[in-house]
Amino acid sequence: GVEYNTFKRYKATIENQIKPILGNCRLTDVKLNMLQKIMNDLSLKYSTSTLNKFKITLNQLYKFAIKLNM
User: Fold this and answer.
1) Nearest-CA neighbor of 38 among 59, 16, 62, 54?
2) What's the whole-model pTM score?
3) Mutual orientation of helices 32-43 and 48-67 as an angle, nearest 10°?
């Protein structure tokens, strides 16, 4: 499982940065070019470290979705 503090960080990243951008878009509807545009846009506002946190969080979201057969 995921440590509690890690979970809190993932949740905060999702709620504060990712969800406002993706809105109600389903993970299955998100395409690679859409993610690349999001990362490009975010790179204008955030540090490389923060961008890496976004990537890690999105990666974990997709891994979890795959485990759930979404």
Assistant:
1) 54
2) 0.70
3) 150
